[in-house]
Design goal:
The protein is α/β, with parallel strands linked by helices. The chain is built from 18 helices and 13 strands. The radius of gyration is 22 Å and the shape is elongated.
Length: about 375
């Protein structure tokens, strides 16, 4: 009996990782009903991280925090023992903006700090902050304030919300926030390596996606640069940290996390370890993975390729299914024995049609079973 691990990332705009896994499983079992299938929905630190964790070894807890525009937001965190996973996108993401109206200058990360405070109050020893998909560009100022940092104007009043509010910053003291996380390990899960400032920084690269006009981008980058200068009086290495890879992740939440002693970890590799991928790979004849778009960025270490590399160490063959594949066969062959793309199976826009995507994924599952199951462990490349 073949043992198959189905471990995809989400197909953004279409299906969540668990939905992708279930559709592939349905098709595979139609063609190979005796196969032993294990589903492992994955995430790399962006949207869907809590869902992926809770589909595995974690349990979900509901909290209410301040959303990106100041209104309450119901969010979930994932808990396992003394480890708490917080998904920034669920707290201050583009998907939780009221009415979808973007607020590039004023969106705040305050609620992320509240979620961290919730975890600390519950006895967390490790907090994993999944960075990605946020509506904010405030360098984590809201997060820091909610944990006890003092960020004030010249008259002593608190600065306004968002990156725009930092233009008025005159005094910064992080002592309260640092004390709040004393003794807690903070892991910053991201595969973004942008610095905080400049041409590759948070405002210039990601600000436009959050509704920032060219003028807004300049204001934000200047305000973030001022934030770094003010912090230098309190944190001697504030400027060095701002230049570190990952400081610009999630609108600068990476920067705030580093200021609090957090360590940046590859989102893909960290989540694979967190969810026990190696144990499952070792027990599988082959693994099916995938994401919405298999492209050049995928080769830099995104989830499917990171998983395929781990599979190789276990002698487990890896196959990929993607919404679209923008890579020639000679670029994918080093990682995957086969690649299927939904766009090769239809002329319709499956990227925004969940039902169609699910049907096509089931078709891909059947094709995988027809071709690869029944050969035995030797035939699968183990």
């Amino acid at each position: 009996m073949a043992s198959v691990l189905i471990a995809p990332d989400k197909f953004k705009g279409s299906l969540g990782a668990d939905e992708v896994a279930r559709a592939l499983e349905r098709g595979l079992l139609e063609a190979a009903p005796d196969a032993h299938v294990v589903r492992l929905p994955l995430a790399d630190g962006g949207e869907g991280s809590v869902a992926a964790a809770c589909a595995g070894r974690f349990r979900r807890e509901e909290i209410t925090v301040t959303g990106p525009t100041g209104q309450p937001v119901a969010a979930s965190v994932a808990v396992r023992g003394r480890t708490v996973l917080i998904e920034a996108a669920a707290v201050c993401g583009l998907g939780v903006l009221p009415g979808g109206r973007k607020a590039p200058l004023t969106a705040t990360s305050h609620g992320v700090g509240q979620a961290i405070g919730y975890a600390v109050a519950g006895g967390a020893e490790t907090i994993v902050l999944a960075l990605g998909g946020v509506a904010t560009t405030d360098a984590g100022a809201g997060l820091l304030e909610s944990l006890g940092a003092l960020l004030a104007r010249e008259d002593g009043t608190r600065v306004g919300p968002g990156g725009g509010g930092l233009a008025d910053l005159r005094t910064a003291d992080l002592a309260g926030a640092r004390a709040a996380l004393k003794g807690v390990e903070l892991v910053l899960a991201t595969d973004v390596d942008n610095p905080l400032l400049g041409p590759a920084g948070a405002a210039r690269v990601y600000g436009p996606q959050k509704g920032a006009s060219p003028q807004d981008v300049r204001k934000l980058d200047d305000a973030l640069a001022g934030f770094v200068r003010r912090l230098a009086a309190d944190v001697p290495d504030a400027a060095r940290i701002a230049e570190s890879p990952g400081a610009g992740a999630a609108g600068g939440l990476g920067y705030a996390g580093m200021l609090l002693g957090g360590r940046v970890r590859s989102g893909a590799d960290y989540f694979l370890t967190l969810l026990g991928a190696d144990e499952l790979l070792a027990a599988s004849d082959f693994v099916v993975t995938g994401e919405g778009s298999l492209d050049e960025q995928s080769l830099s270490g995104k989830l499917p390729v990171a998983l395929a590399r781990r599979a190789r160490t276990h002698g487990t063959q890896a196959h990929a299914v993607a919404g679209r594949c923008a890579l020639p066969a000679d670029r994918t062959a080093a990682h995957f024995r086969s690649v299927q793309a939904l766009t090769d199976l239809t002329d319709q826009d499956c990227a925004h049609d969940s039902a169609l995507s699910a049907r096509l994924l089931a078709q891909c599952g059947r094709a995988l079973a027809d071709r690869w199951i029944g050969r035995g462990r030797t035939g699968t490349g183990r």
